[in-house]
């Protein structure tokens, strides 16, 4: 099964890096949708079937934490797996994000870290694309 | 000055340039790298248990190859994308250096990256600056941190 993935980050370059990393990781990537802030991310979730959201924290308009709160309050997206991709290092804030059922990947990241975290939050061990 | 700050900055720079930009940063530099001229700078301001800003100043011609390393291709990029790449480099170096500077339980928030000119004063006024340098293919990067609470 391919994963339809939503990438939410205000940096175009970071979205590109992340999408490239997803392809390198060997994960079965289906459609990839992009959004530049949390509000756009919610709009994309309303329009598309998304299996996984990769979300930055510090963004204009709506930050990643608020977006996750909205997702968890919506019956249609409350169980959609989320991985936060951020420079955040505070153990307290990372723990808070994990309580919102989100995985966490620290920037800079490797394909292996991204893959392991996605496999953990989606609960599926994907076959390598090699 | 806290003697741990300079190694923290250097480690954050080496990790970011190596893992995110696929570059081979070095602590040792050639005379050519040391004498290279200013190319671009980004600043990232932070607030919280520590306050100040991180600067990433590039010398020589390194930004194109750093951005290409991030994207994984050899295409030339428009200026706005190069600026975006440099902003993300600054953001990641800042986010990785601060826990080493402020302690792992430090609480802070980062402002969006902003372009700067060499030797622009920090927005928060006088501050103690610590800096380090790493060599890059085609030049070098000077990474500095201004800590206002220490002034």
General description of the model:
- The complex is a heterodimer of chains A (about 130) and B (about 150).
- With about 130 residues, chain A is an alpha/beta fold.
- Chain A has a single domain, classed as Response regulator (Rossmann fold), CATH 3.40.50.2300.
- Chain A is about 40% helix and about 20% strand.
- Chain A has a 5-stranded parallel sheet with strand order 2-1-3-4-5, sandwiched between helices.
- In chain A, helix 2 runs parallel beside helix 3.
- The longest helix of chain A is centred in the N-terminal third of the chain and has 13 residues, at about 10-25.
- The radius of gyration of chain A is 13 Å and the shape is globular.
- The mean pLDDT of chain A is about 90.
- In chain B, strands 1, 2, 3, 4, 5 and 6 form a 6-stranded antiparallel sheet that branches.
- In chain B, strand 1 and strand 2 form a beta hairpin.
- Chain B has a single domain (about 5-150), classed as CheC-like (Chemotaxis protein chec, 3-Layer(aba) Sandwich), CATH 3.40.1550.
- Chain B has helices at about 5-20, 30-35, 65-70, 80-100; strands at about 40-50, 50-60, 110, 115, 130-135, 140-145.
- Chain B starts with a helix and ends with a strand.
- Chain B has about 150 residues and is of the alpha+beta class.
Order of helices and strands of chain B: HHEEHHEEEE
CATH level 1 name of chain B: Alpha Beta
> What's the Cα radius of gyration of chain A?
13 Å
Overall average pLDDT of chain B: 89
Question: How many angstroms separate the termini of chain A?
Answer: 16 Å
Work out the number of β strands of chain A.
5
β-strand amount of chain B = 25-35%
Number of domains of chain B: 1
CATH superfamily membership of chain B: CheC-like
Number of helices of chain B: 4
Task: Kindly estimate the percentage of residues of chain A that lie in beta strands according to DSSP.
Answer: 15-25%
Largest sheet of chain A: 5 strands, parallel
CATH class of chain A equals Alpha Beta
What are the segments of chain A in which pLDDT stays under 50 over at least 5 consecutive residues?
A: none
CATH topology of chain B: Chemotaxis protein chec
- Overall number of structural domains of chain A: 1
Tell the overall outline of chain B. globular
- Which fold name corresponds to the CATH topology of chain A? Rossmann fold
Helix content of chain A: 40-55%
């Amino acid at each position: 099964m391919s994963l339809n993935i939503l990438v939410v980050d205000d940096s175009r370059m970071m979205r590109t890096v992340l999408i490239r990393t997803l392809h390198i990781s060997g994960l079965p990537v289906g459609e990839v949708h992009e959004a530049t802030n949390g509000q756009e991310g919610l709009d994309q979730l309303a329009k598309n079937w998304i299996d996984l959201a990769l979300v930055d924290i510090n963004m204009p308009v709506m930050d990643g934490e608020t977006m996750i709160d909205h997702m968890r309050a919506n019956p249609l997206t409350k169980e959609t797996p989320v991985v936060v991709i951020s420079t955040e290092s505070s153990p307290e804030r990372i723990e808070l994000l994990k309580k919102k059922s989100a995985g966490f990947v620290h920037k800079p990241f490797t394909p292996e870290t991204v893959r392991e975290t996605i496999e953990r939050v989606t609960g599926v061990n994907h076959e390598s694309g090699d | 000055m806290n003697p741990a700050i300079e190694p923290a900055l250097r480690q954050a720079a080496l990790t970011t340039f190596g893992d995110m930009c696929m570059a081979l940063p070095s602590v040792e530099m050639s005379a050519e790298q040391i004498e290279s001229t200013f190319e671009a700078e980004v600043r990232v301001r932070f607030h919280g248990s520590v306050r100040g800003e991180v600067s990433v100043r590039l010398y020589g011609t390194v930004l194109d190859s750093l951005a290409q390393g991030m994207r994984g291709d050899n295409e030339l990029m428009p200026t706005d994308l190069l600026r975006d790449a440099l902003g993300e480099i600054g953001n990641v170096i800042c986010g990785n250096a601060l826990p080493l500077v402020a302690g792992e339980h430090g609480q802070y928030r980062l402002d969006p990256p902003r372009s700067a000119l060499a030797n622009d004063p920090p927005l928060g006024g006088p501050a103690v600056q610590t800096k380090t340098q790493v060599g890059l293919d085609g030049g070098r990067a000077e990474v500095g941190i201004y800590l206002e609470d220490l002034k």
